[in-house]
User: Which sequence fits this backbone?
């Protein structure tokens, strides 16, 4: 199943930067799904009670 998110150009650029950082660390291709999953995990770990 494919979902489409509508985001601003600025947010898209920021996500591309994050994607590049993740790819640089892992040395492997990183999809936008991986980027979003990483952001969600990061958010959850910082806001967990």
Assistant:
């Amino acid at each position: 199943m494919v979902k489409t998110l509508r985001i601003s150009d600025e947010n898209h650029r920021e996500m591309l930067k994050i994607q590049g950082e993740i790819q640089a660390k892992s040395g492997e291709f990183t999809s936008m799904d991986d980027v979003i999953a990483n952001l969600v995990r990061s958010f959850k770990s910082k806001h967990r009670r």
Summary: The chain has a mean pLDDT of 92. The radius of gyration is 12 Å.
